[in-house]
User: What shape does this take?
Amino acid sequence: MVPMGEELAAVTGKIADGTALDEQDVRLLVGTRDLLALGTAADDARRRRHADRVSFVQVLDVPMDTAMVEEPLPDQAGEIRVTGRPESVAAAVSAVRAVVARAGAVPVTGFTLADLQGVSGHEAGRLGDALAELRDAGLAVVTEAVVEKLTNPEPVFEVLRESGLTLGCLTLGDAVGETAVPLLRRIATWDSVATVCRSVAPLSRVEPTPPTTGYSDLRQVALARLLVDNIDSIQVDWTRHGPKLAQVALTVGADDVDAVPAVWPDGLGQRRSPREEVRRNIVAAGFVAVRRNGCFEVLDSPDGAARE
Amino acid sequence: MSVESTARKVLAGDRLSGEDALGLYVDAPTSLLGRLADTIRARKHPSGLVTYIIDRNVNYTNVCVARCSFCAFYRPVGADDGYVLGFEELFRKIDETLAVGGVQLLLQGGHNPDLPLEWYEELFGAIKARYPEFKLHALSPPELLHLSRLSQHPVPVVVDRLLQAGLDSVPGGGAEILVDRVRRRLHCDSKATADEWLSVMRAVHRAGLRSTATMMFGSVERLDERVEHLYRLRDLQDETGGFTAFIAWSYQPPNTELGGAEATGVDYLRTLALARIVLDNFDNVQASWVTQGGKVGQLSLTYGANDMGSVMIEENVVRAAGAEHCMDEAEIVRNIEDAGFVPKRRNMLYDVLGDPLFRSRAIPRRTELDVARATGDTTVPAELSRYPARSRSGKAQRAFDGS
Ligand code: SF4
Assistant: This one.
């Protein structure tokens, strides 16, 4: 209805029809300055996968070195995430055991794939053993893998799949703008990734200098949705990117909100809890909020969305 | 009317009824609102310029008798941390502003019963005597009304006296939502009803001054009341043509009596876009990066804004409510260019003054905004003793100073 460049309209039409994009289409998407057109195409693509649902997870971070879980466990926690780099497989396993002992039914996640490869001497066999030990200790999900560090990922995904563990998300380490596009396109070529990973987090969790802009962030989210068609969810980080940007990102292709805190400052009642805040933001963006846990299992839908 | 037919009306350049506008606001996807607003922006500003002004947002006093329930900035009369800035402090702030290429003060403050009209006249005169080219964008309609009540002179007389003293233009603050039901609930109907705010602006425009228009949304108003606010502004603009720009910001709840939650980023972008669509007789729409942060502030340029507002140097009101965002000139320019626009400096009348200043002269980077006064500074300016106080505590202070 509102005019958009003809060529771009043709590409967004292809996306809507599910037709594969050729090189020229991708160049057009990547090169356009029309953020609204790009965002609209990405929104259409995300709605075809997730309709009007946006999932979110409330996370309790537990530093690796203390492995202390506060008691009682915050009742809003949908994931307990062990953070920090382990010095050895044994240290990782012992931290997971300590956390799982207090986690009840809440899934325990932790570590980056690169860190686990590091403590396994970068040997596939030893990585497989480490993952099996962590699984036996109660780890449900490896938190993330940084895309830039995955040079030959398919065998690693295979080891992960065999261990019975999954990957929380693929994250772009510090790639922004033009450097992010080839990485997103690489992800799209990984055949087996969807068997172990549910989401891509296209916005770096480390703020570069100078900081990214709103335009570049939204463009990256939209391109992630349009270029990565082999992974189900596009994720934004509530804590890292802030409610305003995370919410606007939902209108250009993101469908999952990570790192919503499970605890909040004293004095703010339930109505000001992170759960209420994220829910309010999701609804105000025109979506239905679905609470999930660290294994991507739907816990409930405060606004009555149908379970997946 | 369906969203599609309303959108077609917008694209055809037809005016929307209030009902059409509300329907669009409630039902249109955010991306459609953005596209409509962006289309209008591009028609009004086809060269792709995005402007900004280098000025300083100074609050000359935080003492206020209005006690709006959404305000985290004011202090009651007699409060230990109430302040009035002295002339010398204001001169120093102007010197600092000039040093970074600033062209005006945006001067607003509380309704302080101990500052009579003569104080403002003397201040404006003193500023103009020292800095003849420097502009004074000062005193929102409720402040002018307060001075009218305090001095017992009609608003046009107050405006005329301040104009003679050096007032250049009037900021559109204090509009909040121009619906009296909302104003009563915000406890700001006594500072100015909707009609009073508009009639002060009418007087300002009739006196030959230009002004901006604002909207603080996201407190207790309904969506139809936001729309009504826009139509009241549009009607006055049809009548006077005196508004240079429209600025919307979201209510900032922290540290206020009213409390509650802030409107979301998407609410802000939708409201901004609707304003661009409804206010077809306003040339300029500003982004409020001070309340939204730099990222959503920049995205405003896709949702109808053509101006990044002010390189503020100083800000006190929004900070009192907990929001602290800072963008110096280099950062504003980076955001404008990154969004695909051409940055230009402007004055309050939106005349283009030139290219970014930091590219032609060394200007120190700034990562945080100044405040009106350092915490704990309780200095009482000497010149206050020349003016009679009305409040009991003000009278006691004057008597103490004179003894
Ligand atoms: S908003 Fe203005 S008039 Fe209202 S209390 Fe605050 S300073 Fe006073």
